[in-house]
Each structure stands twice: as C-alpha cells, then as structure tokens.
Give the backbone structure.
Amino acid sequence: MTTRTHGTMLGRREDLGRYAIFLVLVGIYLAGLAASSAFGDPKYLFNMVRQVTPVGIAAIGVTLVMILGGVDLSIGAVISLTSVLCASLMAGDAANLHSAILLTLAAGLVIGAMNGALIAFSRVSPFILTLGMGVAIVGLTQIYSGGTAKGIVSPGFREFFNHRMGGSVPVLTLAFFVLLGLGLLIEKCTVFGRQVFLIGSNRSAALLSGLPIRAVTMATYSLSGLFGAFAGIALLARSGVSSTSAGQGLEFQVLAAVVLGGTTFEGGRGGITGTLAGVLILVIAFNLVNIGGLPYHMQLVVMGTIIILASALHGWLSRTSS
Amino acid sequence: MPVLEVSNLSKRYSGVAALSDVSLSATAGEIHAIVGANGAGKSTLMNLISGTVSPSSGSISLDGKNVRFANPQAAQSMGIATVYQEFSLVPQLSVARNVFLGREPRNRFGLIDPARLMADTRALLSKYKIELDPAAEVESLSVAQQQMVEIARALTYASRVLILDEPTAVLSLREQENLFSIMRRLRDDNLLILFVSHRLEEILNIADRITVFRDGRKIETLAAAGSSISEIVNRMTGRERALPKQPAPVQENAESYTIEYKSSGDPQTIRIRCGEIVGIAGLVGAGRTGFARSLAGLSGRNGAVRIERDGKTLSLKSPRQAMREGVVYLTEDRKRDGIFSGLDLVANATAAALPDLAQGGIRNRRAERDRAASMLERLHLVAASLSLPISKLSGGNQQKVVMARALLTHPKLLICDEPTRGVDVGGKAEIHDILRGLAAQGTAVLVISSEIEELLSLSHRILTMRDRRFVAEMPARQTSEKDILMAASGAAPAKETS
C-alpha cells in the first residue's frame, strides 16, 4: 500500500479534536486555581475525586453502552438499590463483608444482563426500556427497604475505603482509578471493546460482518450494571449510611459526564478517557460554585450553565480542528 | 463566454492536496465530462463548485463575476444544482416532499400546500418523463428510483449549472437513457452540465468536452468528438491499458455448491464450483440483491435458500453463521451496511476477522495493523494513513476496504454485489484481478453487476435474473451483451434454468 505519511501536521490537527475535552478540563481547572488556591493542593484534589467516585465509576459502564449506540437510564436506580442491598447484607457484621460485596456486584450484573437481554431480543428502544427498568428498580428498592434507610455497614468497610494512603490519597479514589483502568482495558484491548465500537458505528454493517450483536449487547449492559453496583458500593463507602434514594438523579450526572467527554448518543465514537475528563469537569464546576458560596439552588443553575458552556466549547474546538 | 471559470483552484485537507492549481472554463450549453481515477480530485472540484467545501486558494467565477460560496445554499441560489454521489434524501418523506424539500409551495397560512406540492411534482416528473409516484415514500423506492428523485430535486433549481456526480452508477439502462435525454434537453436550454462518471463509453456518447484529472491536477481538456476510450484512459492512468484477462479454467473435480432458491414460483437450483466465477446479470429490480442477501443469511423477505456443499447442507440462518461456513456477502450499498464511517481503516478492514487476530479475546493490534496493511496493499489502496476514518476516502477506496474485510475472513463462497460500482478504471481492473486470483485459489465467486461488459470479461458463466427468477444461463465466452439484455428484459423467449 502506498502510505503517504504527512506526519506532524495531520497528527496535531486530529489530536486537537480528540483532546479538545482535555483543553476544556485544563481551562476550567485554571479557572478554579484563579478562584481559590485550594485547587493547587493535592489533598483537596484527591478529595474532590473521591467525592465524584460513584458517578465516575458508573460513567465507565454507561460510556460503553453509549458507544454501542444505547443508553442506560436505570443506572441511578441501580446505584440506589445496590447501595441499600450492600448495607443490609453486611448487617453490621465484619464477617459478611466479602459475601455482601460479591452478592451486590452479582445483583448489578443480573440487572444489567436483564436490560441487555430485553434490548437484544426485543425491539424496544434502550431509552424507554432502561427508563422503565429504572422506575421498577426504584419501586423494588422501596419495597425491599420498607422505604427507610436499611442495613448497617460492616465495621472496617468505611475505614478501609476512606483510609488515606500516605496521608493524602484515599483508597476510594484509588479504587476508582483501578476500575477506570479496567474499563480502559476492556475498551481498548479486547475484541469485545472493538466490537462495541463497530456495532455502535453501523449496526447493519456489523450484522453483515458476522458480529455477535446480541451477545455484545447483553455483555455491554451487564457491564453497565456491574459498574453501577461498584458505584453503589462506592457511594455507601463514601457516605456510610444507606439511603433508598442515594442514587436518585445520578443518572443525569453520569450522562452529562459521558456526553461532555465526547461520547455521543449516536454511538460508535467516544471513550472512557474522555468520560474521565467529563467527570472531572463536572466535579470542578461543582466545587467552583461551592467555593463561590452560592445558595444550593443557584449552584444548580450555575453548574448547568457550566455544563452547557463546556459542551459548546468542546464542540467548537472539535469542529475547528477538523 | 464561459458561464463557469475556475482559476488556480487548490484544496488541501489536513495538509494533503486533494486538488492542486486547477484552471478550467466551461460554457453554457455544453455537457462537460470530468474523468479521473479515484482520488484524482473530481469530487473535490464538484464540492468546491457546489459550495460544499471552500477552496484553500484560487477562485471561481460565474458569468464573469467572482463568487465565493459560504455554503451549498448560496451556490443553489445562484442556480448551481448538484446531484450528489451519496443520497441526501429524507427516507420517511414522500417523493414530492423530497423534490421540493425546503422550497415547498405554501398556502396563504404559510403551511405546505399538499395539493399544489403534488401537482407541481407531477408536472416536473412528467416534463422530464421520470416515472415515479409523487406520493410514494422514498424509503420504499429502489436505489435507482431514489437517484431519480435526487435528480428531479436538482432540476427544480438548476438554472445555470447542473452538477451530476456519477449519476448513472445505480441506474438501469432505461433510466440512464432517460437521464441522457434530460441532459441533452437542459443543454439545449443553455445550461452547463458538469458530469462525473467512470463509464467512458457513456461519456463519449453524451459529452461535448472531457476534462481529465489525475492526482488532483487537471491533465487536459479534450473534445469528445474524435477522442477514443484508450486515449482517455492513458491520460487518466498515465500508462497504457492492458488487455482484459481471462479467468483461470475451473478444476474438473472441484467441490461445488448447490443452491436451491425459492422466492417467486417454484424453487430453482443453481450450481457453482469452487474456483468458478459466476456472473449474475439482470435489470435493477430483477431480484439479484435479494438472492445474494438471502445467501448471506438475511433471508426473510428475500426468499428462502438452501445450500449444500458436496452434499452437506450448510446452515445460513444469519450472516454470522454464513460467514462461519465461508459464505461471505459484499454489499452493494456501502453506506448502509458496508462502512463503519467514523472508524479508521484498520478497524474497518479487520471488523469481521477480529477473533482470528486475537488471543483469548485480547486484541493484537500489531497483527491487526499488519494484516490490514498487507491486504490493503494487495488491493492497491492509496491512503494517507491507516488511521484515517474510512469516511475520508473516495468511494472506490472505501470499496477496497470493505473488500479487504471480506477477504480477511478467507471466504469459500464470495458473493460480490456490484463490486466495482463507483470505482475508477484502474481500480476496477485491480478488483477484477483480485477476484480472478481468488477463484484461481479455489474460491467460488458470485458476481452481481449491472455492467454486462464486466460480467462478460470476468466470469466463466453468466446467469440472468428477471422477476426474482433465473431465466437464462450462458457461458461467458459464447455470449454477447445483447443476448443477456434480451434475456434480462424478457425480449427473447428465455429458457429457464432447472
């Protein structure tokens, strides 16, 4: 093949499009630094990441689902359910710790697999199906818990995750990075990850190319459920108390992070690296309005505006570079 | 006086020159053909003139006045109409709505006036003798009919220049003839018609002047009268054209496939031996693609198929199963189910062979890249980089990538549906060579093509379809274009194959 390489020029321009989101991230971080010197303190930064860990973990699985061309609106409900489930399985006893975590992860996986199977074998749109599933799971969570906080975490559970290694890096933050690495491994290094991109890019072409569309669909939603369960456990570790509505509305933060990161609803493009940037932009925005001392509801308005601006800037940067 | 004058026009994409320093002038009342190999810059030039992309340098003038189009609408409002290679129709809307999209006749409340819309469309279609139902939904139409809708839409605002980018690639013979008469009529109305095509015969037949492009540069403008195909090809390729090759003889004792196809009427049986190239001819709508798709495991409304390889029945319930049995289908509609548009060439080429290139589900990027590169090299693909998204390639190069994908699965029975549509002369010969090479190595190859000349030079045998049935079987060496056309159109009392 006649490969003409027009190295640097081509490389640089394409990279600009791909990394536009990171420019946005750097921009908003610098804005934070200007607003408060706290943004220069590693301890504060790690704490910030710890704060966003549940959303970040859930966003890993949802990114894969959206690359596939689907969406998972049940993720918030899954986080709530698994967080309550984990707490009550622990029942305040250290002996239950490992079994509780494993059972919780299994529950997330099963819910994800149900989403996946229903989407793969019926023609219901993922949007409606996962929305319905989410509503049903919220109901189940309420019935299971009797509508109030239920269960007590095992002793040692919170202490472990909130321990700061070397005095500054919380284990929970570290766990987030480990799961992020796992997600990246799945996305970039496995046949499955590549097939997710192919199916999301053109389902008909994937079908003709002999790709196992149903199996990949089920596996992707299962992963989303599994990461949802990890997120539920992370939420429990962060707050220490199980609340039946802990994950309520989190699906929107997750979606905002994923879309900000450059993964689109059309599928076939994006990735977990971008999602990480999206998650960080969200949490910096949140902390900025917090530092600004705005009343809570005003904070929401400003945060929404920041999301829109960041997204517009991202779109503009990717357009001008291509 | 030239209606269109292009001076020193250049366009660079990411530093790669798609068009370099092109000057060209064309007059009203002429059919001006633009020819060149894939990637020669034809489509880029058309995109510049139609305002789809803006030039890196140089200028375009219309009626002696310098113009700079901010977008395609600006060019349209100046009377430059374009029929694109890729369809830009809204599939869910009717023919009439598509023809007048954005310029629908309004009633006094400012709403679309459906009665006038229908009447206007009907008048336009009958003026140009285009046989289409204005009320039909575009998605229910064949690819050829959709192309005619596209042309009808352009006719509604073509007042100075009509740009046709490979308009005949998907048309049946009758529609082609009709398009040519429309083009002649518009020429007589003093329009300039810019016409991009790979079919040199039709260009010599219809064009007044021909401009040849190669590697983004204009080579020469010739008068069509007095030019020959070989002259043009030599300028396009910069080298002499080789003689057509013959397919290798089929081994006497080769294994064979027996295919029983039932779609309309009684089931019919056809056979193809390993190492054999069988052409399938027929007019658009004869059911060739339906047959091919059902072989590929997409049965349903395409009809039922049963296939045996040396007496052993193969199960083809899905493309995945078909592929496992070595039966691979190469689509005629790249955009719909051929390319993964946002993904790079490696991802596109290796899509079907990923598990073979991996170990325990973990990808081996190096193996993917090497295999894709060597296969694309075999197909003589020219691209700036393997990391380019496939959508940046020309149609012919996209076809090569999709073909590489099929070949990387090591097909035993390869079904190629219009494998050279939109591919230039050089690329066509290369694809033919590849198919002959595959057959020589024992692959059974079914080729569907609307270009009978292609089937005649490529295949051992030619089957002709009409109304979803096989109506004739002829050895390629002892038949002519005319025989096949007669069988395909039902003009001759064709003998059905058993």
Q: What stands out?
A: Chain A has a mean pLDDT of 87. The first strand of chain A starts at residue 2 and ends at 3. Chain A has one domain: 20-321. Strands of chain A lie at 2-3, 164-165, 169-170.
